[in-house]
Amino acid sequence: LTRESPRAWKFLASLEDDQALVMTASGRLSRLQLRQQDQVSFFDEVTAVPLEHAVDTGLTIVGDDLIVADNQPAVKVLNARSLEVTAEAPLPQPAPVAPRVVGDRVYVQSGREQLFCFDLKNNLAQLWSVQLPQTVMAGTPLPEGETVTVALQNGEILRIDGQSGEIVETRNVEQAIVDGPFLLGEVPVVIAADGSVIALKSKSQEAAQ
User: 86-122: b or e for each residue (b if 16 or more CB lie within 10 Å)?
Assistant: First the structure.
């Protein structure tokens, strides 16, 4: 299967119905192919590379792109089949959570202090960055028209201009957030630590009620 026991696997991500990517605790990244011989199914290692720097935040796969944030620190795009690095951008600090991808935008934190937005289709060109209040994204940012909504684990909600990176609105739901934002029907919501679903309304919407 691989040179290391499955117990040493650190991350596992599906690539196709019969393929997977595996990263081991020692930093070996492998592409596995499901095969069958004598009516026995098994994974065969097709491609493998040793990573120069540790990855502690998981694997993000979009099509044939594998996006990782390592402890160099940097965010990198690898071809998910050949495992060759195709683009990279430095980070001031290691990312505390895995990169989030929406369309051609890659959102990745630097420590708990900054959120960066990179262009996936333009060699990870930096589009903007914003300061964070010593916390972590709760989930994947949600594009809404010309803005992007980001929920933070400390309960803060940021609405950011998707082009300039300017923070156009900040609010706090007064509860820790564990996931979101995402759309429930047409309403953006987040999930609080107590399991409740909180609908997000802009300050202008609240004032109109």
Answer: ebbbebeebbbbbbbbbeebbbbbbebeebbbbebee
